[in-house]
Amino acid sequence: MLMPIQGYNQMPLMSLEEAVQPLVPILPAVQDYAYMAKEKCKKPADGLTHDESASIMLYSMGWEPIEQCLYFALNAALRSEDRRNLDPWYLYLKLILTALSRLPTQHRFVYRGVKLDLSEQYRKGETIVWWGFSSCTDSMDVLQCELFMGKTEERTMFTIECNSGKNIRNHSFFPHEDEVLLIAATQFKVVASLDQGHGLHMIQLKEIDSPVPLIQSVTPSALMNEASSEPNHHKNKAQLKQLIAQCSPRARIDLCSKQLEDEDIEIVVNEAIINKRCAWLELGGNKITHIGVSILADALLDNNALLTLNLYRNCVSDIGVKYLVKTLSSNNHTLKELSLSQNGITDTGVEYIVNMLKTNRTLIQLWLNGNDISDRGVRLLAKVLGSENSTLKELYLSSNKSITDSSIDPLWDMIKRHQPLKKLYICDCNLSELVHQLKLFYGEKPSFKQNNVLLREIFTLE
Q1: What is the pTM of this model?
Q2: Which GO terms describe its molecular function (predicted)?
């Protein structure tokens, strides 16, 4: 039994383009197919939004190589014992599971076929779990084609009595197949297993409830609160203006967790950045995407007042980073501290940041905690800080679960070569040997002390 599928329900509901952004490193063509899906379902049925319908259509599409096809890679991650493999999928899972939760649940018999003899894996009376999404049909005729099961050689046909099937015909790339989708982590009891001869094996399954939830469900209240991308929380623009008006000029303006969305950023720019000329702007815990970030980036150009910008736990993504670093590369600003923690940033976003650090001469603190940065991103940062940047003093990379022991050598080289760096936080990553090896470094490398390096639990350079 695998661990339950958890974590996705805490993610914000994003557009399809943003939801697939973290998947680009593993599915290079996914953005192209996401575009095709949205173009094909501009008038979605069943009360779904454009993005929700397109998320289902994208799942139903196939392309080569099969290993880089979305449904194949997603189901492989869902079946993996290492639940960290699901991390880049959370935004997409949130979107498609929200979409599926809006469709009627059907109690019916459906069929599924594979070109293998699976009878040994399904013994009568046993309980099994299908951890991946499962495409089925209510027409046995569909299974006869060679693509699914064919009529010769070894093959298995499942007859499934399901309680939670979702008919996705109105949202599938292949509507003629009348596809019924079974949600990931569905549990079944094996009712019967029959050898029909001529290579055909029949297995009858009945969906049953699990004694413990195997996958988080999207609650109706969460759907009402999160699914709408319309500005439900901040329609009263006067209230936002009044909140900013109460703040002192050239001071700290705290707009954290105010349910701000992209359309609110124009007010933030005009009232906080331009009129109040704030020195410290807190925008963490909101719903700002790359669209709002692009507005902020334009406002920072030629701004000589803002010193600190906090965008933690928003929906910035790699696209938003690209907009922001374009301004920060120019040095026509005074920004010294930038937080982009918990924004779904991948190594692609790090590439944009690295190019910015080559020319930026104002930034001294950079927070990138809780993103999807891997060893490759660390190597990129270490290289630029070791050779082409002389101003950054503090770098925060904690809670990036894809950073492993492979990052130790690049980080050590960076520490030796980047003299200005005083703090480097990288705890809660996948670094099993980091502390031990750094302690060895501390004892064996005289330059560690010469560089005024102080080793703490992970490490801080002060």
Answers
A1: 0.51
A2: GTPase activator activity; NAD+-protein-arginine ADP-ribosyltransferase activity; nucleotidyltransferase activity; small GTPase binding
How many other C-beta atoms lie within 10 A of the C-beta of residue 391?
13
pLDDT of residue 350: 96
In order, the DSSP letters of 421-455 are --EEE--SSS-TTHHHHHHHHHHH-HHHHHTT-B-
Per-domain boundaries in the chain: 1-102, 104-210, 237-450
Residue 440 phi, psi (nearest 5): -65, -45
**DSSP designation for 8:** G
DSSP string, 406-429: GGHHHHHHHHHH-TT--EEE--SS
Pick the more confident residue, 85 or 439.
85
The whole-angstrom separation of Cα 333 and Cα 360 is 10
What distance in Å separates the CA atoms of residue 388 and residue 229, rounded to the nearest whole number? 41
Architecture of the domain whose range is 237-450: Alpha-Beta Horseshoe (3.80)
Whether 142 shows a pLDDT value over 90: the answer reads no
Q: Does domain 104-210 have CATH number 3.90.176.10?
A: yes
